[in-house]
Design goal:
By secondary structure, this protein is mainly alpha-helical. The chain contains four helices and two strands, in the order ααββαα. The chain has helices spanning about 1-20, 60-85, 110-115, 115-130, and strands spanning about 95, 100. The protein has a two-stranded antiparallel sheet with strand order 1-2. It is elongated.
Length: about 130
C-alpha cells in the first residue's frame, strides 16, 4: 500500500515538472523580417509557418506568397462550387465536343472518361493561359 502511494506521488511530481515554465532566451536581429504582427496571425497559433517558407524572406516575398495563397483559395472555392452544381445535375446547354452533349458528361473525376482527349487538352491549355 505504501508503494502505491509513493508511485502516485512520484507520478504527480513528474506531471507538475512537465508543465513548469522553462526559461527561454529571445534572440533578436535586425536582419530578420518579423511577420508575427501580420494580418491573420492570431491565437493560439500566432504566425504559423510550419515549412519555414518565410525564414529569411523579405516583405516582397511575404506579399507574393499571401497573394498566391489567396488566389489558390479562390480557385478551390470555385472548384467546390462547380462540383456541387454538376453533382446536382445542372448542365450547360449544347455540346462540349462534336457529338458529346454536356448532359452526357458525368460529374467529378468520372468526367475525364467522357470528355475527348482534345477537350481535356483545351481545358489544360486554358487554365495555363489564365494562370
Amino acid at each position: 500500500k505504501m508503494f502505491a502511494k509513493l508511485v502516485v506521488i512520484l507520478a504527480f511530481i513528474a506531471n507538475v515538472a512537465a508543465f513548469s515554465p522553462i526559461a527561454s532566451r529571445k534572440v533578436s536581429t535586425s536582419l530578420k523580417m518579423g511577420f508575427e504582427d501580420a494580418i491573420g496571425a492570431q491565437a493560439p497559433l500566432g504566425f504559423w509557418d510550419p515549412l519555414g517558407l518565410l525564414k529569411d524572406a523579405d516583405q516582397a516575398r511575404f506579399d507574393r506568397l499571401r497573394y498566391v495563397e489567396t488566389k489558390h483559395g479562390r480557385i478551390s472555392m470555385l472548384a467546390i462550387l462547380g462540383h456541387l452544381v454538376t453533382s446536382a445535375g445542372v448542365r450547360l446547354p449544347g455540346e462540349i465536343a462534336y457529338g458529346v452533349p454536356f448532359s452526357s458528361v458525368k460529374s467529378g473525376l468520372a468526367a475525364l472518361d467522357t470528355i475527348p482527349a482534345a477537350g481535356i487538352a483545351q481545358i489544360v491549355a486554358f487554365i495555363g493561359l489564365i494562370e
